[in-house]
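thought: fold this chain, then report.
action: predict
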Amino acid sequence: MTITRIKKEIVGLEQEIHMVLAALKARLPVMLEGDAGTGKTELAKVVGRALQQEVLRVDGDPELTAFKLQGWFDPPLVLQKGYQWETFIPGPLTSAMLQGGIFFFNEVNRAPSESLNAVLSALDERILNIPRLAAIKAKDAFMSIFTMNPYDRIGTNPLPKAFYDRCVWIGMDHQPLEKAIEIVRMRTGERDAEILRSICQIVEVTRNHPSIERGASVRAAIHIIRMIQSLRGEAKPPSMAEIEYLCMMALSKNIKPTYDTAKSPEELVKEIVEEVMSKKKLFAL
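observation:
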């Protein structure tokens, strides 16, 4: 029943879904690792909804501290009543443990490595020590899911070995063309099969092009289709030049050329668009 619910919202990823559910059933922390746009965050959110448990989400950033994860004391109340549970404001990790919910830590490698130490005992022993109060033990239903993009080097930090030691790892990759088309159709409601295929092919070529080290994800295809749908409201359908410009908007900053190519990202996008669209009946929009 759970898998049926998930498949209503997730395209493909059958093996990943089965493995995530198996790990969570065993009460093992799950690390979803993959490039941007591979469905890590969406899978985590949908699994949480399908399991009908509250999902307490944290997004990694440099300002995230152990106190924001565990919780903190309300200063005015502490002055009145001292350090007790009544004056303590639980953070998302503590709340998930006490409620038996799902602790979802998105982009975990964007958080400072030091703050992750606050999570380790909760992952391993399912116990969390609250300073000035006591140690709490997680309810049996407590689960945790983490995501990270290992290819993003800006604003990220290496995870401690102890963190990897406590999680099971599930790799996420870009979906094949037919699945990508289905994803874009689901997210945009687009009914024109030809334009869906064309735009998804353009995005897929960016990941297979010999002069591109890192290409774009299905998210770029969704953006392009939505812009095409917006232009349809005007007097005439988008022209070839407009389609090319839309692709430039969505793709030029999402691809990384190889070090040995003389072509700019814009030149590569133009080349790919012209190659794919020359074989299509573009104006049947």
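thought: worth noting. The chain has a mean pLDDT of 86.
final: tokens above.
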